[in-house]
Amino acid sequence: WSGPEGSEELVPVGKAYFGFTDEELRQIDKYVRDNTIERFGPVRSVRADRSQGLVLEVAFEGLNRSTRHKSGVAMRFPRISRLRWDKPAAEADRIEALQALLDS
Predict the structure, then answer these.
(1) What distance in Å separates the CA atoms of residue 7 and residue 96, rounded to the nearest whole number?
(2) How far, in Å, are 37, 40, 94 from residue 78 at the CA level?
(3) How far apart (Å, rounded) are the C-alpha atoms in residues 35 and 57?
(4) Which of 12, 86, 93, 103 has the greatest CB tally within 10 Å of its CB?
(5) How far is it, in rounded angstroms, from Cα 8 to Cα 42?
(6) d(CA 21, CA 79)
(7) Confidence class for position 60, pLDDT limits 50, 70, 90
């Protein structure tokens, strides 16, 4: 999440891959299709809703500043460590958490 409270938006920080099971891929595909609001070629923007959503836990080796990503941050060697269906989107980290890691 990024932006002031009440007008937060989701911002991309990169691509990450994982060996999802067939069932997990079906669940992710259904979520993305049901919540797509914009398409940019193969990339889709999904509805940002703090009360519901898909939360992914991402592990990475390091962070870099990036002019390619709207967030200004890029992860090095990102990988999805697990799907967090139990976690509401409102509890997902904000971009400031990644920026603080860059500054430390």
Answers:
(1) 15
(2) 25, 22, 17
(3) 19
(4) 12
(5) 24
(6) 15
(7) very high
Distance of CA 21 to the CA centre of its chain: 19
Residues recorded for the chain: 104
Q: Cα 71 vs. chain centroid, distance in angstroms?
A: 11
Helix H segments across 1-104?
A: 22-35, 95-103
Tell how far CA 32 is from the center of its chain: 12
- Strand ranges inside 47-87, DSSP E: 56-59, 62-65, 73-76, 79-83
Mind listing the pLDDT tens digit for each residue in 19-52?
888 999 999 999 999 999 999 898 888 887 888 7
Tokens of 89: 């989107």
Domain ranges across the chain = 22-103
